[in-house]
Amino acid sequence: EKIEKVSFTWQTPSNIALVKYWGKSxxxxxxxxxxxxxxxxCHTRTTIGFSKQESxxxxxxxxxxxGKEKEEFKPKIADFFKRVQIYCPYVLDYKMIISxxxxxxxxxxxxxxxxxxxxxxxxxxxxxxxxxxxxTAAFIIKKASFLARLxxxxxxxxxxxxxxxxxxxxAIVGSSDVFGIQFPYKVHAVFENYQDAILLVDKGxxxxxxxxxxxxxxxxxxxxNRFVQANENVSKMSEILQKGALKAFVNLVESEALAxxxxxxxxxxxxxxxxPNTLEIxxxxxxxxxAENSNIxxxxxxxxxxxxxxxxxxxEKINRFIESELAQYCQNKQYIxxxxxxxxKKG
Length: 347
Ligand code: PMV
Fold this sequence. Notes:
Elements: E1 5-19, E2 24-25, E3 29-30, E4 34-52, E5 60-65, E6 68-69, H1 74-84, E7 94-102, H2 113-131, H3 137-151, E8 163-166, E9 180-182, E10 195-199, H4 210-215, H5 223-243, H6 246-265, H7 276-291, E11 297-300, E12 306-310, H8 315-326, E13 335-339, E14 345-346
Parallel strand pairs: 5-7
Antiparallel strand pairs: 1-4, 1-14, 2-3, 4-7, 4-8, 5-6, 8-9, 10-12, 10-13, 11-12
This protein binds (3R)-3-hydroxy-3-methyl-5-(phosphonooxy)pentanoic acid (PMV).
Residues 17, 20-22, 34, 111, 113, 152-154, 210, 214, 260, 301-302 line the site of (3R)-3-hydroxy-3-methyl-5-(phosphonooxy)pentanoic acid.
């Protein structure tokens, strides 16, 4: 099949880890399994226009972000193409015009690498399928996650939803270090339409890039224990999700967030990524949980922003609480209300 000119558009979401990935070996293989909720409203929408040209030694592309050419984002994408070109040799045969927009504010401290790279991976797979129409949908999803992983580990968890496991784990049938899979067991109804409010505490540049962060685990005194703990937590989380054990969910999710930050507090060099307002928010969440007998809980990425997770049936009460009491701790009172989603969407 010969294709001269074609373009594909995909919208792929961000995700939030319940059990965290922190530590990897080459080429982007995780030191422990992780599991995440796929988000819905926080997403990247990417169109890639492919025009056939004489084969090049490395990928040839232009990059537009929010309508403007973005030279500063190009090296990361160029690295990504270098890593995937042996799996997708056709990237060398096309000039690519990549145009992306994010649904969330740029530099909000919300990781855009997961949504950004998974969207590019889906566009590549659409071209691959156009070149080879016999590919199955299951293969396309799996390979897209495989490719996304090579760009950013957590991006492997942004293709499907609502729950994705990445990393080989004995308790998760079909799990793999090289791609994410949909959580393979029936999830209890309390986790349907689970809510995630992202409180933008600090919109500044990330203090610790994730590449640097993962490398901190190489000579980390607690690394081995952390990897064991995370894998045990994936087993526990699997049980919790199936049983609908909300109290245990709250404890495990918060413990995971703090364990991630504990790794950064105890690495060489060390980092404190939480801000005073991160702690204020956590304190308020804990008070609210007791006072309202709520199942509200928090989690954190490698930064100061707080993700607040809560069941759908507490949505109204907790959204009011966020607006009236927590928004004041956010930069410009900014927060984003999101809900678990279903992964990549075409067009
Ligand atoms: O995908 P990366 O390399 O940006 O790493 C992401 C790591 C955390 O967001 C901190 C945890 C996770 O599992 O998503």
